[in-house]
Structure formats: structure tokens, C-alpha cells
Amino acid sequence: xxxxxxxxxxxxxxxxxxxxxxxxxxxxxxxxxxxxxxxxxxxxxxxxxxxxxxxxxxxxxxxxxxxxxxxxxxxxxxxxxxxxxxxxxxxxxxxxxxxxxxxxxxxxxxxxxxxxxxxxxxxxxxxxxxxxxxxxxxxxxxxxxxxxxxxxxxxxxxxxxxxxxxxxxxxxxxxxxxxxxxxxxxxxxxxxxxxxxxxxxxxxxxxxxxxxxxxxxxxxxxxxxxxxxxxxxxxxxxxxxxxxxxxxxxxxxxxxxxxxxxxxxxxxxxxxxxxxxxxxxxxxxxxxxxxxxxxxxxxxxxxxxxxxxxxxxxxxxxxxxxxxxxxxxxxxxxxxxxxxxxxxxxxxxxxxxxxxxxxxxxxxx
Length: 365
Description:
alpha/beta
């Protein structure tokens, strides 16, 4: 079979399963955009949870960094060096996450690859069954032994640790990206403290306050700069010696160009906003909006299970007709039979738009 024939066959197979995807162009500044046909839509698809991608202080910091350092960094930080903004952001992230040190990478995906390929090599990696794709890929690339535990099941994770022939690493999203539920952080950390296992938590979708890990557990916090912080990039926060090893061992850090000055400075400004009284107020606004859609839900990710893929796509299309952009999430992102509408809320949303969405969803139910 020729390469052209193979590409055609693979594409045809995806189309035949009704899972062919295309990119959508949106023009505007979130959460309100224009579609190419001119229609105005309110997006409930973004992970810009606090609306910081549009915050004046964040934008101003990016402009200042562009003027001072230019558009790009030119190479890996180990080759070309780092800008002061990289060091300042790492110090801010370490303080924010209550750790001794932090390392900034170009994406959150690379941060998970860095941690799991470095510390998972030769270890048993014990991973929640609903973890993000970047965790799954990092575990595979580590060439460690991978064991998957039932979602949120600490007892299952404990049995897998007890059976480990050597070092054990437990990894979990803190907030799960498709269901919006929260991991049992306290219980996992107590388990790791008792069993001398390493705990890795991916805080990518963490916005609201969550339980802190047991102080006796060795824990690495992985996160992104592109969701709650509204910029781009990722980080790993933890003990200084562990972070130093990543600088010397993690291929996804060593062999890629450093995060741009503008993104770095923007994220630093966003951390400042998050830790201020304004950040507290933004989280309360977000909390109030989540409660309009689903009272008491622990995160701004609110799924509405449909089940059938075609029905989920039809529901998303109906909402788009109302000027509400809510993505239909279907296999392979979620298991077959669990296709859903995934509502992602932001403090930047207007209350009347959220109320309009709530009304539209009730009609679809």
C-alpha cells in the first residue's frame, strides 16, 4: 500500500465512523466571538476559567516583555540561557504552589512528559483510569510498568503499590477534564506517605480551593499556564533537588525552545492577579456562575451526558443555533456510550448568558 493510499484509507475509516473533526475559526476576544459567517456566539468551550487572557495587567505584561526581549527566546534554555522573566515566574509559581522550587516548560503537555519520563523510568506508575492524555503518553514514554486503578479508588491504588516490585509513583489529575470531578487528594497523599510512593498531581484544571496533600508525602505538582492563568506553557513544582534533576534529565525541557518572553511575563502577571483580592473575587464570581448551571459542582467543567454520539452532535448544533458554543465530546476522548456536552464556565461570562445557557440546556434535557 502506498502512503497516499494509507492516508486515504485512514481518513475514510474515521469518516465512516462519523468521527471526522475539523477546526473552527473564531474571531474576537473571549468569551464572545464571531463565526466566519458573521454570527455572534458566546463560547462555553474555553478553559480560560478566570478570564485572565483578557486581563489588562496580563496583556500589558506581555507587551512589555515583547518590547524588552522580542518575540522568541531562540533556543533551549540550557543552550541560550533564560530571561529574567523565566526565573521570576518560576519563583512565583513555587510560592503559589507552596513548594521549594518550580520549572517552567513550553506546554503543560511537556510538563507531564518531563515528570513521568524522568521519575517513572524503572518504576511502577499507578495511574487513574480517567487521567489526561498527556499523563497516559508520559507514562508510556517512560517505559516504566503502567498499572491503571479504578477512577478515584484509593484502595485499588493501595493494592497496586503493595504489589510493586520497587519504586512506585501514583499520578492523578486533581480535577478531571471531562467530568469536572475532583480526585481524593488527601487520601492519595496519605497513602503515598505511608508507602513511600511518589505522588504526582496534575493541577491543570484546578481553580477552586482543594485539599492540600499530606505534608509527609513527596509530591510533585504539574500544571499549565494556559487555563486558569490565561497564557501558555506548563510548570512542575516540588522539592529543589527534584526540579534540578528535571533540568538535567527531562527531554521535553532540554530539547525544545524556551517559552516565549511574552507568554512568560503574561503568566507571571496572572499569578499575581490570582493571589490578590481580585483573584479571590474572580473565583467567587466563577463559583456563582457554576451554581447557576449545577449548584455545588466542584469545578467549572460541567458535563451533560447524552450517550449517543449523533445525539450529542445534534444537541451541540442546536445550542450553536441559539448562539451558544458548547462542544460535543465523543470517543475516543471519552468512552463509547458516554458522549456529552462539556460546559466550561469562566468568570468572564455574563450572568444573563449563563442563565440563557441554563434555559437552553433544560429544553434539551
